[in-house]
Amino acid sequence: MKKTFFTKVTSAVIVAATIVTLSPLKASAQWMQNDDRTWSYKEGTRVTKGWKNISNEWYYFNENGKMKTDWIYDKGNWYYSNISGVMQEGWNNINGIWYYFNNSGVMQIGWIQDNNKWYYMNSNGAMQTGVQNIAGKIYCFDESGRLIESPNDSSQLLTNSGYNSQVDAYNSTDDDTVDISELPQLPKNYSIGIQTMAENKIFELMNQKRTEAGLKPLVIDDELVQIARYKSNHMIQYNYFDHTTPEGDNWTSWLKAIGYEDTTTGENIAYNNYEPVELFNQWWNSPGHKANMMNPSYTKVGIGVISGNDKYMGTQTFSN
């Protein structure tokens, strides 16, 4: 399952008694206020739809010709228009979170450089601060989101900045491989790191959803954890993505090989190249994977998140 872009939902209300109060739209006979207090822009007899530049500002009108505010998703990109409908550019603090929009108004994700400083925006566009694990490497950002240093480059700076304890918490566990004595030893085509913090967070998020739905939380099973990590590493080392291995095996045959007893079992797999905890959202937004996580028959789970070959590979192995 490849990278998925997630929906934002926020709300805003336009309050305007007359056309003049809707700054900075300017008083114009072409602006019309609708019965539901939204605004439209009329050019002759035609009501404007889509993007429109009016007095050097960009506005967006939906299929009904009504001006949009708040978040706008158009042709695969996110935009943000303020309460007056004006498309935003550059840095914007929205509900306490900083986002960055380019000169075309498109919300940016990943690394961005501004005034010779580097920042990182996660998959939802939110600016990151503190210590962050990005593609298997640790980076530190100050409270303004500016990149400080990688701990590999400047341990003294991290000590002086008080980041050491956070680095220890976020670091992955580096290892050459994940092997189970009863299963074939895996090759070392790619160096890997076990993302223990991501595994723990995914477990927490999943049980939160189960509890909210009135289901019993799952418990971690150490053998299932080893199988899940083995599967994630197996897919990395052999460079494939499937429930069945190139040799025709799957997690059920591995469970039998180690003598694991169960009557019901399931598996979720996913990967991305930008954020390990986002694997949970990828599963949650897929009906089949969500059904596994919310299956009342399951009582135990193992979660294995491995970084390697420039990706995060995740596996959930369920059992009753």
Task: Explain how this protein is built.
Cell wall-binding repeats lie at residues 48-67, 68-87, 88-107, 108-127. It holds the Pfam family CAP. This protein is an alpha+beta fold. Helices cover 21% and strands 29% of the residues. The chain contains seven helices and 19 strands. The chain has helices spanning 155-161, 164-170, 196-212, 222-237, 251-257, 278-284, 287-293, and strands at 31-33, 39-43, 46-47, 50-54, 57-61, 70-74, 77-81, 90-94, 97-101, 110-114, 117-121, 130-134, 137-141, 173-175, 192-194, 219-220, 265-272, 300-308, 311-319. The strands form seven sheets. Strands 14, 15, 16, 17, 18 and 19 form a six-stranded mixed β-sheet that branches. A three-stranded antiparallel β-sheet has the order 1-2-3, with no helix packed on it. β6 (70-74) and β7 (77-81) form a beta hairpin. The longest helix is centred in the middle third of the chain and has 17 residues, at 196-212. Mean pLDDT is 82; it is low at 1-29 and 150-176.
Keywords:
six-stranded mixed beta sheet, 29% strand, 320 residues, elongated, 7 helices, alpha+beta, 19 strands, disordered N terminus, three-stranded antiparallel beta sheet
